[in-house]
């Protein structure tokens, strides 16, 4: 029955996204208090290797994790959490974590998030998300993601790491795209993994409330707002295009902005590919 429901639910999605959703059974982590909690592993690289499962996880907000969720969290051996939210954003919804979990806040580019009123104005500009993924966000990418990759380099073999933001889609989506890219996962697979957040977050009742509030402020319909906010492949393409334009390629970006060169990239591949 669950398989039938899943098939019906994704029937209206694009073919490539349908394939990604169907492949998510081994990747999605079922949580009562989070909706977009996923393993980044299981993807094939261009050279035939596979990103290791059970090592690196991504999620939306985790301030409402239940006791059952905390057990799942511990069972996954997650010992480090990297949070991309801003300082005030994180204070308003503090992560609920098992005892002794290492928590690191990386707020670069997030400390001055737009207010609801600002968002209402931005929504009338169809390019606002495109700019956030491109030149508008470029000054923050290195500082925001440097700590994540340093932690990945030092993570012990029997430990796992989680990175997240509020929706687990934009800041988290870019982090996941960088991680998969540097390991050699094909671009089309990265894009499918990225837009899959649309499906998982559609189950989050908070999203419905957000659309309703923004609709009242902007004068746009909820359907129009949903369309504006939907993740699209061209957004993550613009993310990489902005990096490539300034640095030449992703490897140069890692070296210049994060101090992670060929030797460290080789370590990442050794640790997270099989």
UniProtKB/TrEMBL annotation:
Keywords: Signal
Cross-referenced InterPro entries: Prot-tyrosine_phosphatase-like (IPR029021), Tyr/Ser_Pase_IphP-type (IPR026893), Tyr_Pase_AS (IPR016130)
Record-linked Pfam families: Y_phosphatase3
Keyword Signal: yes
Keyword Signal: yes
Source species, domain of life: Bacteria
PROSITE patterns hit by this protein: TYR_PHOSPHATASE_1
Signal peptide extent: 1-19
Protein name per Swiss-Prot or TrEMBL: Tyrosine-protein phosphatase
Species of origin: Chryseobacterium tagetis
